[in-house]
Fold each of these.
Amino acid sequence: MQKLNIHISISITVTLLSFAGYAQEEKKILRKGNDAFNSGKPMEAANLYKRSLKEKQDYYKANFNLGDAYYKTASLIKSGKIPAYDKQMTADSAANLVFEQAAEQFDVVAKSVSNADTIQKAWHNYGNAKLMQKNYEDAILGYKKALKLNPKDEDTRYNLAYAQKQLAQQQKNQKDKDKDKKDDKKNEGNKPEDKKDKRDINNPNDKDKQEAQQPQMSKEQAEKMLNALKNDEKKMQALRKKKGDPAQKVKVEKDW
């Protein structure tokens, strides 16, 4: 009986050790993913983070890091440093799909964990992924949720202002585009070939009228206009240099 008891005790110990080793497997794989990410291999890191999630589905640290890996991969695709996986797709289209995958991971984290700091970072990164897709409305939503949790985060505040500015410009462009379409439809029935020119170009009097209707510009006026344009361009370049490109200042990913 004593022998049996010892045997059972050993079996239980071995089982517990095996379970502990199995339970830590997702962390080991995650660390390997982190090493790959820090070595500039985001695609390899993404595969390792996915393996980590297979070991433990609710391992939200892996979700967060997977979002970062997707974001980095999408940025490299967009810049042309990584070729698009589908040759029929443009770099921007392929990058947008991967940015969407990144946003999905951050969304999962933000809605699943209880730590306010982690939720805030997840919403910030969600906003960044949407910003890169030029989905400014969703980006604004993410930044606002992040700011509710940390109103003092200057990076999020800046990104929110930038996204709002871009959305306003996008809406203006769309409005102008719609107006142009309307104008084109109105002018469809008034095509130049439908209008008969009542002037006789062979008639010297009508020719004189045509020439008289065209405004003439002197050489001095033309030079003045050219110089004005050059000065305006110099002023714009100096202004851009002074202010910098706002898109360059967008704070990218926040770590777990």
Amino acid sequence: MVLLKDFDKNGFVFYTNLKSDKSKAIKNSSKISMCFHWKSLQRQIRVIGIASKVSKKEADEYYKSRAYGSRIGAWASQQSSILKNRDDLYKSIKEFKKKFPNQKKVPRPEYWSGWRIKPIEIEFWLDGQNRIHERLKYIKKTKSWKQVLLSP
């Protein structure tokens, strides 16, 4: 699961620990997918694309916008690793608060950055009665998008 933080003509951006399971998977294969499901609206969007790391400048800017506790958490948490107990995490948080007491001066860890997913396919799904869903897919061509209708 990721928290979408930005999107523009270049793609969709989220941030994470580069040692996390998701980052390891992306490093193994940069062709990935993401899905947004809105059950209450009976809609879904699936994006398939190529992931690349955001620039250091972009990661630094977003990191600086985060709350102090979130920046400390990026240092204290060894994301996706096994914790013996929560107290170990709280102890690590305390240690990093001592190391970085100035809330305005918490540097971004080298192992924390963002990923941009440049879409090559986008599918829009609309829930249909008796599972006869509407599915519209856009496929990126060199300079344009091709629109196709998919069977449910």
Amino acid sequence: MVKIAFDVDVLAKQMSITGMVRKVADWGYRYIEQSPHPRINPFYKHPLFSRECEQEYRKALKETGVEISSFIVVYRWSGPSEEERRMAVANWKKIVQVAAGMGVRVINTELSGDPNQAEICNGMWFRSMDELLPLFEKEGIRVEIQSHPYDFCELSDETVDMVKSYRSDNLTYVYSASHGFFYDKGKGDVRGMLKYSGDSLSHVLFADTLNQTLDCRYIVNPPWLNGRGKSDVAVHQHMAMGEGEVDFKGIFETLREMEFAKRTFKAGGDSIACVSYFGFPERMEKEARSARERIEKELPQ
């Protein structure tokens, strides 16, 4: 049965861990996706998670009945320097300990490379995966890979192929709806991308965005920032479903065809559908609830 989770990034920036967990429970969610948090799993840095932090988190989970479906971590395990890669591998080893200690069997992550050094980052990622996959398999952790805007690989199908190349039950794929226009260079063919991911698809992130490849969807100044290079930028959003240009009708229809909501994996258990809204915390009281209700309706269990 699919786990419907809420990514707490939008809450962690403005409230305590206890408040964050209680708010997710108030919105009717049973699961939290713990995105990078300054006290737990900060972006790029070594994991933290003190005894006091763990005690607070466990107490809040027990009081509310909420569970952690998954951690999100972002480490530079694809370099591009070997020093960055080694530090990222050390971070990975620690977060696996933290996750296992909390009974969390799923970690969602990114490739985390540099698009201007794609070849070296590709090689670094495979080097890191060769080193870490035995640990993931030993600890029973499902690691889910997503490509991301401004990464050494932004394409969905290519990332799926990288994941499938390992032929491991502990390595699967995440599809992020708000990244989808990067995934196929602006086509937005959600049906084709989801079907291509096939049995490797274990996790979908729900949020809307505009198609960055179309004229004036986003305006960045000075104009030359729009050319690929050292000063380049990649722009996308995580808005409420229906506010952008993502084909959510196609996403939900395809997920039903694939019986995504009924998937269970050898590592990490059930599939995950996560609400990944960021930009408007003042609207979450309404939008978080309505997103959960829509997913429950569109993906009946």
Amino acid sequence: MQSGDTPAWDDLRVLLALHRHRSFLAAGRALGVSTSTAARRIEALEASLGRPLVHRSSGGTSVEPGALELVALAEQLELGLRAARRDEGDEAVAGTVRISMGEGFVRPVTQVLSALRRKRPALRLEVLAETRLVDLARREADVGIRKSKSASPVLVERAVGRMQFALYASLDYVERRLRGGRLALPDVPRHDFVGHEGELAKHVQTAWLTARGATRWVFRSNSDHAVQEAVEQGQGIGMLADAGVRGVPALVRLDVDADLPSSPVLLVFHKELRQVPRVRLVIDALDEALRAGLR
């Protein structure tokens, strides 16, 4: 690459891998190239731009602050290439659709998508269970299931219902501490609770319990499955999604003299994807299932 040329993707992807892994050895392994090849790519990029891009030391290799704009460019290119690969295929329903959601939606959504693939086997599906919301505007995923709105003008956000929460405890906990399965609000401070950690702790479940005096958080997790399992194991009372645990034999739905919280559920997708056949199929299948399941 000559001076003044636009940086090549092959060089930028090495810089991105170096930023993520902090060594030429690890970056090379991540990309499937030798350490020397990775080093040559960076040297060529530095020579073409006429400035150093990485700092080498005994503690590792780091990208210079002035090169972070190139890292951001590489990330954008990476996302664009991934989206382009998902868009490959004929105009029928072949190709990949990537769907992002909170962990609590994974099992029912996987059941819906599996049924869809039995009818449309050319579909390829990628399900992302995350606490961090992926950026749908940048096509990190094609479809998302969300409980809050965004401010992005390029996203379509379709309300499909509300997720109702309820207080649950194990049969053992109820037998030991909640005879009759009723939680009196003045007794909330003396009970043990299971809740969320990290970003999930900002959701309405934790706020509702904290506002009513819950302080004894004996078990927290950023995993919905871990929270439910801890409640089933008798660790304490948890605020769980009613539709997701209704009918679980190990759990008892508690009575309480207060209105319980709920959250809107939104099906979200980039407006440019509305007419893509395979994405449309997934959106329609999820829309129908979510509306039915959240009644």
